[in-house]
Amino acid sequence: MKTILLELCLCACTLSVVAQNNTQCPNIIVLLADDQGWGDLSVCGNKMVKTPHIDRLAAEGASFVNYYVCPVSAPTRAEFLTGRYAYRGQVTGVSEGRERLNLDRQTIGDYFKAAGYHTGAFGKWHNGTQYPYHPNARGFDEFYGYCSGHWGNYMSPLLENNGEIVYGEGFLTDDLTNHAISYIKDHQKEPFFVYLPFNTPHSPMQVTDKWWNSWKNRELIQCGTNAEKEDQNHTRAALALAENIDWNVGRVMQTLKELDIDDNTIVLYFSDNGPNGSRWNGEMKGTKGTTDEGGVRSPLFIRWPKKIKAGTEIEQLSGCIDLLPTLLSLSGNKTRLGKIDGIDLSECLTNDIKEVKRTLYRTWGAKSSFREGDYLLSNELDLYNVREDRSQIKPIQSKEPLIYQQMLTEKEAFDKESQLITQAKDTRPFLIAHPMEQYSKLPARDGLCNGNIKRSNQHPNSSYFTNWISNRDAIYWDVEVCESGTFEAIVYYTCPNGEEGSLIRLSSGNIQLVSTLSKANESSLIGKELDRVPRQESYMQNFQPFSLGRITLSKGKTQIVIEALDVKHNSVMDLYLLVFKRIK
User: Which residues form the Sulfatase N-terminal domain (predicted)?
Assistant: First the structure.
């Protein structure tokens, strides 16, 4: 814990920012799609979908032709937040704590907050749930959304607002946009930094009738490179969700226009990885989870009428690691960033300059690829000129042996460094009871279980524990209590009518709280009614809070264990979340 506090102090000390004239600072809005492929937009050549508002961002601003993200979600978000390769911030997975961004990394929220901006994040975070990994601890004054890698229900789901559990209102993408728009209106007179990471088209493929009806019987006139693997209803749902995102982008842009602040607001749009399925993607090889072109190439549009010429097209090799230094530079922020992997691309946007020679490394699991200029060295160690061959069907290493050998040597060095981190066991405990946090959350996805208990699904994110039927069963979390105190322990659970009455013990070392689960909470499975294709994730339930009582937690590493001393009937409960609310 001393190490963590020292890291936080170092972060604060390095955020030395000269105050700027707030009337001249541009506002910034970052729009991020989840699992949307490069080819899911009409501006990129998709003839089936209509995305006029996103297309207009490109037409009225700059389009990056060779912009790259990571193969999956959490690493992309970490690179955007810090300008550093994700593995260097110990973001090596998407669940079980491996998505957490190390505390020695300052975020884009930290920098803009220190510069006097109002900072808000609305949507999917996916870089840590507990303080100080939580967005409110990473530079964002306001947070509304969820911290998990995916969410199991998009219609009025459980969410959080600055750490407190709340219920959403309506379809999630629309709801997140509503909150972002309200924040923009509240802070229209002063500079704001709004991060709006949408939840779609990540599965489950839930689409409301408003957006599905025009797609459910539509003929698909374009297909992916692996057409035999394409689920056409999955594609229809993804493109329907793309049109819903576009509508929400239009709402944001209309708000800026009505407030008369659109000329001095920088708006960015990109996606976090390749498409989450086989569908048309510009004939590129690969999808989400791969390091091929189709898995990591993303659109990037940046609109700023005050400084960026409409219709600008940028060929420069670029990535999400470049957004932090670029946005700081565009806003006039002179903060010294220290060691980062990204480069400042502001000159590409505001001046006609030649391309900067640079490399870009992409990795996920045991897979990796390496870019330099127009050349791609693939995971299979084939060399391609992707300007001419984005499908990766014509390897050229025999024609370019010197370039091949040089890139192979560089890629091997990156692989050696990254694998030392990504293949190591993550020993960081989950942190709770931080002095700056009133609500400490231990979701089922971060916990472990024994006995008869099992997860509702093999994918931990947005799962819950079920089949709790014996007094030999237990659920536990390895944690570190940051500061001693007294807490109200609250479970979010379901329990069928007639099954209530089990005696529950919650413990931390020798400290115990014993309570009777005296109230049933009957629930059916939620989500199927909006699913347009069968899901792989858990269906959700109507989890409700139940207070177990008060418990005292002592500072230090411990194990939080919840078990049943007496199973009153056939089962105890399904457990989704354990919350500790600080009392003193």
Answer: 26-332
Domains of the chain: 2-353 (3.40.720.10), 362-422 (no CATH), 430-582 (2.60.120.260)
For the segment 181-222, what is each residue's pLDDT rounded down to a tens digit? 999 999 999 999 999 999 999 999 999 999 999 999 999 999
Question: What are the CA-CA distances from residue 397 to residues 66, 290, 294 (Å)?
Answer: 21, 21, 21
What residues form DSSP beta bridges with 367? 364
- Identify the DSSP state of 135: G
The pair of three-digit structure tokens given for residue 76, joined into one six-digit string: 């992309």
Q: Is residue 294 within 8 Å of residue 35, measured between CB atoms?
A: no
Phi-psi region of 562 (alpha: psi -120 to 50; beta: other; left: phi over 0): beta
From residue 344, give the alpha-carbon distance in Å to each of 69, 83, 321. Answer: 16, 10, 10
Alpha-carbon gap, residue 297 to 92, rounded angstroms: 20
C-alpha distances in Å from residue 471, one per residue of 82, 366, 450, 512: 46, 41, 11, 16
**Quick check: 17 pLDDT over 90?**
no
The SS3 of residue 201 is strand
Residue 515: Cβ within 10 Å count: 18
Burial of 7 (0-12, 13-18, 19+ CB in 10 A): middle
Distance between CA atoms of 521 and 566, rounded to whole angstroms? 19
Record the tokens describing residue 358, joined without a space.
């640079």
As to burial, measured by CB atoms within 10 angstroms (0-12 exposed, 13-18 middle, 19+ buried), residue 276 is buried
Q: What single DSSP character describes residue 429?
A: P
Helix (H/G/I), strand (E/B), else coil: 108? helix
Kindly state the tokens that stand for 332: 């006039």
| Residue 294 and residue 315 in contact, taking contact as beta carbons nearer than 8 Å | no
Give the HSE-up count for residue 430: Cα atoms under 13 Å, Cβ half-sphere.
Answer: 26
What pLDDT was estimated at residue 7? 46
CB 101 within 8 A of CB 127: yes
Q: What is the pLDDT of residues 369-381, one digit of tens each?
A: 999 999 999 999 9
Structural element, H or E, at residue 175: helix 172-186
Q: How far apart are CA 317 and CA 310, in angstroms?
A: 20
What is the total residue count of the chain? Answer: 584
Q: How far is CA 236 from CA 15, 26, 170, 215, in A?
A: 46, 37, 22, 6
Cα–Cα distances (Å) from 3 to 91, 117, 429, 492, 556, in that order, read: 18, 29, 13, 32, 13
